[in-house]
Amino acid sequence: MIAHDIIVRPIITEKSMIGAVNKVYTFEVAKTANKIEIAKACEEVFKVKVAKVNTISVRGKFRRQGRNNGGYTKSWKKAVVTLAEDSKPIEFFEGMM
Question: pTM of the prediction?
């Protein structure tokens, strides 16, 4: 897998922005990616040093469409990436704060 295929998008929420101050960033990642692949992809794309990666599988929620129809949103995987102390922060998130 290519690094840009592993990291789908950043998660921009209040909680993730508070974590960005401490060099903890949240991304949506490919469902098949493991922690080692996610760490290597972050290091390659953002030119940083990753200390730790935590992953969470987010299950799809039931949503109603119309009167009787219902379905589920897609399931996805979230990664919380912690950078090393001597690493520089990710510039993309610096502009958000």
Answer: 0.88
